[in-house]
Design a protein that fits this description.
CATH superfamily: Winged helix-like DNA-binding domain superfamily/Winged helix DNA-binding domain
CATH class: Mainly Alpha
Radius of gyration: 16 Å
Structural class: alpha+beta
Distance between the termini: 28 Å
CATH architecture: Orthogonal Bundle
Order of helices and strands: HHEHHEEH
């Protein structure tokens, strides 16, 4: 991927990464690199998760008891921390999804109709 293509990717708004991590973990436990890859792929390669932001977000969510972590082996047999959603995390995901959708509608209203 070229540097220009990387610059054209969308930057994540603060707080959005936590929501995307929680959403990704709905599908089952995953290690950090797998979470980043899943977000990138499910966004059609528009979102690139910087590892400098990913791991602090994972720590923050773990401190909030929204996710839990345990050590395991990745698909390439390397030791990795695997994260999974907790019941508190599912509740937080529902709340944050509702809040984010309300904000997206409000921003779309301010921007007005999309130009052709």
């Amino acid at each position: 991927m070229s540097t220009r293509e990387q610059k054209d990717r969308l930057a994540l708004l603060q707080g959005t990464l936590d929501l995307l991590i929680l959403r990704t973990l709905v599908f089952g436990r995953q290690h950090g690199q797998g979470i980043a890859r899943a977000i990138q792929e499910s966004s059609g390669d528009e979102l690139l998760v910087d590892h400098g932001a990913l791991y602090p977000a994972l720590q923050r969510l773990e401190e909030q008891s929204a996710i839990s972590a345990e050590w395991g082996n990745s698909e390439n047999n390397r030791k990795a921390r695997f994260y999974k959603l907790t019941p508190k995390g599912r509740k937080l995901l529902t709340q944050e999804t509702t809040r984010w959708r309300r904000m997206a509608v409000a921003i779309a209203n301010v921007l007005g109709p999309q130009e052709s």
